[in-house]
Design brief:
Blueprint (H helix, E strand, L loop, with lengths): L2 H18 L4 E7 L6 H9 L8 E7 L6 H14 L4 E6 L5 H10 L7 E4 L4 E2 L4 H14 L7 E10 L6 H11 L16 E3 L7 E3 H7 L10 H11 L2 E13 L5 H21 L10 H13 L4 E2 L2 E2 L2 H22 L4 H25 L11
Parallel strand pairs: 1-2, 1-4, 2-3, 6-9
Antiparallel strand pairs: 4-8, 5-9, 6-8, 7-9, 10-11
Helix pairs in contact: 2-3, 6-12, 9-12, 11-12
Length: about 375
């Protein structure tokens, strides 16, 4: 057989092999100081109904010294003894999430076809991977989608089922509120829909490798930045309620303020690179403050009152209304005060984070750097 024909035959065989390859999922879990949650996280992955022979768990640790590593090693041995998925521990000297995901991507076996994002303080139901892989395959076969390349499918993020305390319950309600981040990764939805912000995404490995993985310049919002590059390269992204995950969130006011500032800071870094992702809603606190200050220095009156009173009163009324509605819907009377307070703190910390992002370069954060 001529050399050219031999190469063509091998090439055709390779294509057939790739097309017929059985789906193999690698779950990537960046960790840092996750001793409180890592056992539940990894056990939820060990208990998956998806065949363990087609599931690899990469735990990529950023230098934990709180007992996280010991738990991971114990669970890795337990999984091996019980015929569960392989758990591989990878050292992440750069410490951050984007570095962790890229390290995992560079060490994936050839048979891996899909990459599932997780974090060390999240957990999933036993059928999570099975349900999501079925959903992914159905999406690929959907005639209405046509020839779109499916880059990834996100999932639904439900409230934590852990004991939260009063502040923790306030934070849970705020994360789903439209005045806060209720349109983002914590949005509650039903069915399947196209999006650019799929949370805890099940990615097509080919898509990740095509765009070069995650940008390590981003300490947070690295997934949003990645997704913009995927979309730009012709990959469609979706989110679906075929399954869900739960995650531990902040439960203190100080932690909430740090969270808001950190996300505002890195949101600015993200928007400087991808300004098309900007939303006027993100800048409303600054717009409201500047408008109020302008009215303060004007002599304009409305209905006999200084005009600067009205933006402040309107803001207070809107927060109060949302507090009452959430208190009724969740049957939590403290939300009448708690929700307005936490939204106010989020607006302040996020807005100053946006400004800080313009003035400073990115620096390491101690807030779940994973």
């Amino acid at each position: 057989m001529p050399l050219g024909e031999a190469i063509l035959t091998v090439s055709r065989l390779s294509v057939v092999t790739i097309e017929m390859a059985e789906p193999f999922v690698a779950t990537v879990v960046p960790t840092y100081q996750e001793v409180e949650h890592i056992d539940r996280c990894i056990r939820s992955l060990m208990m998956q109904t998806w065949p363990s022979s087609n599931h690899l768990i990469h735990v990529v640790d950023g230098g934990s010294d709180d007992g996280t590593l010991e738990i991971i090693k114990t669970l890795a041995n337990e999984s091996k003894e019980n015929g569960g998925p392989e758990i591989k521990l990878i050292d992440n000297p750069e410490r951050f999430v984007a570095d962790a995901r890229n390290l995992s991507l560079s060490q994936l076996p050839d048979e891996v076809t899909h990459v599932l994002e997780m974090i060390g303080h999240a957990w999933v139901p036993p059928t999570h991977i099975e349900d999501r892989m079925r959903d992914f395959e159905e999406l690929k076969k959907d005639a209405q989608i046509g020839s779109q390349k499916i880059g990834g499918v996100g999932t639904l993020v439900r409230e934590s089922d852990q004991p939260l305390g009063t502040v923790g319950r306030w934070i849970e309600s705020v994360l789903q509120n439209p005045l806060a981040s209720g349109r983002g990764q914590f949005a509650q939805f039903s069915g399947r829909e196209q999006t650019t912000i799929p949370p805890f995404t099940l990615y097509n490995r080919i898509a990740l490798e095509e765009v070069g993985g995650w940008d390590t310049d981003f300490i947070t919002t690295q997934d949003s930045e990645l997704n913009m590059r995927l979309v730009k390269n012709g990959w469609s992204l979706w989110r679906s309620d075929a399954s869900y995950c739960r995650m531990a969130k902040r439960t203190s006011i100080i932690g909430w303020i740090r969270f808001g500032h950190r996300y505002g800071f890195w949101r600015t870094k993200h928007l400087l690179k991808t300004p098309q992702r900007a939303s006027i809603l993100e800048f409303m606190p600054w717009i409201g403050l500047i408008s109020t200050l302008i009215l303060c220095y004007s002599s304009f009156n409305f209905l006999g009152y200084p005009a600067w009173n009205f933006p402040i009163v309107a803001y207070i009324l809107v927060l109060t209304l949302h507090g009452f509605l959430e208190a009724i819907s969740r049957n939590q009377i403290t939300l009448i005060v708690g929700l307005p307070l936490m939204i106010l703190l989020l607006h302040i910390s996020f807005s100053f984070g946006l400004l800080d992002g313009l003035l400073r370069k990115g620096s390491a954060s101690r807030d779940r750097i994973g």
